[in-house]
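U., I forgot to send this yesterday:
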Amino acid sequence: MSCTNSPRYGGTSGGKTKSGRKDIIRSKVLTGVSSYYGKDFHGKLTANGEVYDMYGLTAAHKTLPLNTIVRVTNLDNNRSIILRVNDRGPYVKGRILDCSYGAAVKLDFVNQGTTKVKIEIIEVGDNKYMKHD
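Result:
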């Protein structure tokens, strides 16, 4: 079961700094509601060009540069995991992150569908699209 059945888009917005990193990163810690997505998108391309693996440890965020590494903590049970942002979303108002199904299992919120999370930016991604031959 997936909490959202939204399209995934490859575009990004926002200006770049001299280093080429997005200027949208104003805080290294974000909090909000996370959902997850699973089988409806399994095997389809993500925003960074990878094939989505619902059992992998990835996430979708609206503005963080693609390939950003984050620690996500479920604030309801204090479980945490390190994920890589490889997609865009969520496209449901009031949500900050869309985890892969595999990440939601490890964070233990599959049954609830959503949970409040803390997102800590570990490494800002290169925002690059992965080209496949």
